[in-house]
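ok here's Pyridoxal phosphate-dependent aminotransferase, seq below lol
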Amino acid sequence: PETKLPKVGTTIFTQMSQLAAQHNALDLSQGFPDFDGPTALLDAVGHHISSGANQYAPMAGVPALREAIAEKVSRFYGGHYCAEREITITSGATEALFAAISAVVRTGDEVIMFDPAYDSYEPAVEINGGTTVRLQLSAPHFKVDWQAVRDAITAKTRLIILNSPHNPTGTTLTQHDLDTLADMLADTDILVLSDEVYEHIVFDGEQHQSVAGHEALRERSFVVSSFGKTYHITGWKVGYCLAPAALSAELRKVHQYLTFAISTPMQLAIADYMADAPNYGFELPAFYQQKRDLFCRLMASSRFELLPTQGTYFQLVDYRAIKDVPDIEFCQWLIEHAGVVAIPISVFYQTPPDTRIVRFCFAKGEATLKAAAERLVNL
Ligand code: PMP
Ligand code: GLN
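and the structure came out like this:
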C-alpha cells in the first residue's frame, strides 16, 4: 500500500550521532551543547517536582511561563502578545512547527520555503496534503532573492516558512528583508511561519530581527522559538509559538490533540529562571561568539575554507581543497580519517547544488573544540 511519507527515512542527525558513537569520534554534527544549562534553572525543576507540581499543565501552557514570554518578547522586540490568547507552550519548536503547519495547510496548498531547509518542515507540509516550493539560497552568503519569492507566489500559496538565524547556514534576515516580504504579502492572505529558535545567538553586534516585532508581518504570522537553544536544554523539549489570537486558536486545536500539555515542572522552572535572569538573552550572543571565534581561529591554518556565520551555533566549511567528493562521502571519510563528525548539507536540499560544504556545530566546550580542530588542521 502507498505510504504517507515515502521520502522520509531516519534523519541525518540520528545517523550521524550513531556513527559518532560507533567510531568514538568527536561529535560536531547534531546541534546540541555538550554543557549544561544554568544551575539555578536545573535546580528549579527538582524544587517544583518535590513541591508537587507533577500533574498536567494547562493545555496552552503554565500561565507564569506565558507571561514571562510576553514580557521577554515585548522587551526584546517591542511586540505585544497576550499571554492568555496568543502564546502557546509546545514540545520544543518541533511541535510548534508541526502544529502551525497542520493548523493551516490544506490539500493542494503550496508552501514556499528556502533550501537548504531544516528537515522537519517538508514532511509536516506533505502529511497535510500540501506541496513545498523550495527556493535555493546560494553560497557563500545564502541571501533570499525576493524577486524569486515574488515569482513563486501563486493562487495556491498558503504559507511562507522563514528561518532566521538560519540552520544550517548561519545567515540572518534584515529589517529590509522583512519589510520587503511584508510589502509583497500586503494584498494577499498568505501566512508566515517564522522559525526563530536561534533568536538569541546572533553575532558581531547585530540585532535579531524578529517577525514578532514587525507590525505588518506579525498579524499573519506564527513565530516559533525553543528554550532548548537559549538555555542549553535541548533534551527538555520545551518551546513556544506566538501568533495573533485567531491563528493561535487554530494552532491550539492541533496542539490539544498532539500533546495536550507540556511537562509542568520544566515549564515552572523556566518561568522562574526567566523572572530571575531577565537579561540572559542579551548575554548569550557573547558566549557563543566567543566559541565561534575560537573555532574559527583554531581552524584558520586548516585547508577548510570557513564561510561567514552571522548567527546559530553552526559553522559551514568548504572542504574542496582537502577532498573533492560529495558531502555525505566526505563526512564518512572524515569520521574514519579524522574521528570528527559533521553534517552534510546536501540533505537539506530538494535539488542539492554541486557544492563541497559541511556543517560543524561549535556549541561545545573549549577542550572539544580544540581537540576537533587539532584533528582537522592536519587534513
Ligand atoms: N528549527 C530549527 C532551525 C532547529 O535547528 C531546531 C533544532 N535543531 C528546531 C527547529 C527544533 O527545536 P526543538 O529541539 O526545540 O524541537
Ligand atoms: N536541530 C538540530 C540540528 O540541526 C537537530 C535536532 C534533531 O535531531 N531533530 O542539528
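fwiw The chain has a mean pLDDT of 97. kinda neat tbh
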